[in-house]
Amino acid sequence: KMCCNLKRRFLLLYATQKGQAKAIAEEIQQQAGAHGLEADMYCISEMDKYNLEAEKDPVVIVISTTGTGDPPDTARKFIKKIQDKTLPPDHFAHLQYGLLGLGDSEYTFFCNGGKTVDRRLQELGAQHFYDTGLADDCVGLELVVDPWIDGLWLALKEAFLLQEEKKGMSSNVDAVSDSPFAAPCVREPDLTSKVQHLKLEDEGARSSDVLSQKLVDINLVTSAQDLEPSLVRSVPPVSQSALNIPALPAEYLEVQFQDTHGENPSLSSLTSEGTAFEVPVTKAVQLTREDAIKTALLLELDIADTTFDYQPGDAFCVICPNNVNEVEELLRILGLPGKGEHFVCVKVKQGTKKKGATLPQHIPERSTLKFLLTWCLEIRTIPKKAFLRALVECTGDAREKRRLQELCSRQGASDYTRFIREPNVCLLDLLHAFPSCKPSLNLLIEHLPKLQPRSYSASSSNLFQPGKLCFVFNIVEFPACPTRPVSWKGVCTGWLAELVAPLLQTNKNAVDARGGSLSTEKIFIFARPSNTFHLPADPSIPFIMVGPGTGISPFIGFLQHRQKLREEHTDWKFGETWLFFGCRHQDRDYLDELKCFLENGTLTHLKVCFSRDLPAAEVAPPKYVQDVVRLYAKEVARVLMKERGYFYVCGDKKHMADGVSDAVVDILSMEMGVDKLEAMKILAMLREAKRYLQDVWS
């Protein structure tokens, strides 16, 4: 019989790329104690610390998805192991598991990391003890994550109960068969009544989370009926509700200030994803006119003195810092304006209640405070509810405290989405909005995630320009809003633009020139090779490229590579090449380089559109690339189906790539005489065969 006072163990595995899945797993581990359970938590890559083949207890898996549908890097070894074709179909027949997948429906292969593991575990005989949850970062992970975690505890207790029943039944059978006399049968309480009891018990555990101050002092609720809610103000019913708020996360780090002597860690030590190279920026060109809506820059890096290698279509990462003014402002609010150059030592707090607490990988043991806030922590991240819960304890003003409680509560979920998630509110915004909130430094280090390197597509060919690596990007702009009176530039694109401003000055009067003086500015990069977004291995295979705006970037590399191959191998047969390019204005955003590829025969067909130019003709030309693709339906179908060509799409996911795939589905349906469903299956097969390839972002 299950002893209710004994903490039952379950195995908790997480696979994370940027820390989301780990944070959710930690939340599950933390809540487990309140439900009389103990989570034995590991990263899924730590296969020496757990053994699914011999696991008797229930298993909970939290797994994210990266890229356009890949499992996180930490799950690759695990997935390779379970994908072994020699494993029998009952390999995991003993395993009971529940899985929570994280993804973004902006991308085609939504939650594919979780779905891949789920499907394979099922094929190997594992059983669900709880339904799979698929959380969507596009609308807010918490919309699925919170209720999934709420329901997990009852499902786990039912799983333990069934386990006990099975044990009891087998031990009873053993006892009867071993004994010469049959013992009188003592009936256990009916299983359903036990489950009912568990439900009541679980409700009790949940209600213990309800804020002890059932209703806030009525004086604090001003005549809110007349007011609109905002980040700092709530209205009924939220303002008058008793609140279910998350448990307070245990603090687990301590920060010791030291003197100003010493050296900061090398920036190359900030990544564990590959060798980082420090390379000079040798050229910077503004590709768009001053009056263009978006500013596009092309940067050239000198990689000649490194072992950095890439193919056209590969991506690479840039290690970038937070904005210097935002770091200074954060230091000021924290009351540490003169301490930036002081070294700090970060250690795990002795006697912390956080189980298995370790120093996060991205936090150096010793560095200056400014280095830590500049290079290690994503200070612009949207604060999670657990962070808000911790900030409550650092807030002096009663009204501000109550509002932060509301924003992290179950009752305030829609306020959290509306006033924090959707407007991309960050820590600095919160500290400005709630001036009595004075968090400690250790709290920020515990709750702010790693400052992620930013990924860019190579826009060059090593064959065409040996020792050079080029890339193109728009300077990202975030307009001012009610919670932020000043506009922002993207963390990395804003920094790069500032870094190369002197180089751009030299080109000011020659936008078309590819010139520019040598620069002493250097940046750290590391490779992130693509497994699939490459030219066909056989040069005689035709291909189609669709890349509006900076989506053109990898295709410049493709065409440079093809041009060089044509020069070097005059006897080879080369397939035709199509490029569909779009930009806002022909005179401000158009790349003349594309005409050169057309004139020298590297590019067979160039089709362009300009979405913001006023039509001169009576019949308006197509505005967007997906519309132009439709005009060439017969040719697209021929290249894809008759000639088994490739189709590449690069650029914005939501507003372009989805429109292009819809256009291709319509073309296949029309040209092959099949219904839309059949055409969608054909497109899925092309994706599967790696002949319809996307490099997209949201």
TrEMBL record:
Domain FAD-binding FR-type, first and last residues per copy: 274-536
Keywords: Amino-acid biosynthesis, Cytoplasm, FAD, Flavoprotein, FMN, Methionine biosynthesis, NADP, Oxidoreductase, Phosphoprotein, S-adenosyl-L-methionine
Chief location: cytoplasm
GO biological process: cobalamin metabolic process; folic acid metabolic process; homocysteine metabolic process; methionine biosynthetic process
Entries under SUPFAM superfamilies matching the protein: Ferredoxin reductase-like, C-terminal NADP-linked domain, Flavoproteins, Riboflavin synthase domain-like
Localization, UniProt: Cytoplasm
Co-factor requirement: FAD; FMN
Domain of life: Eukaryota
EC number: 1.16.1.8
Domain Flavodoxin-like: 10-153
MF (Gene Ontology): [methionine synthase] reductase (NADPH) activity; flavin adenine dinucleotide binding; FMN binding
Catalytic activity field: 2 cob(II)alamin + A + 2 H2O + 2 H(+) = 2 aquacob(III)alamin + AH2
Alphabetized Gene3D superfamilies for the sequence: 3.40.50.360, NADPH-cytochrome p450 Reductase, Chain A, domain 3, Nucleotide-binding domain of ferredoxin-NADP reductase (FNR) module, Translation factors
Cellular component annotations (GO), alphabetically ordered: cytosol
Subunit relationships: Forms a multiprotein complex with MMACHC, MMADHC and MTR.
UniProt protein name: Methionine synthase reductase
Organism name: Struthio camelus australis
Source lineage: Eukaryota, Metazoa, Chordata, Craniata, Vertebrata
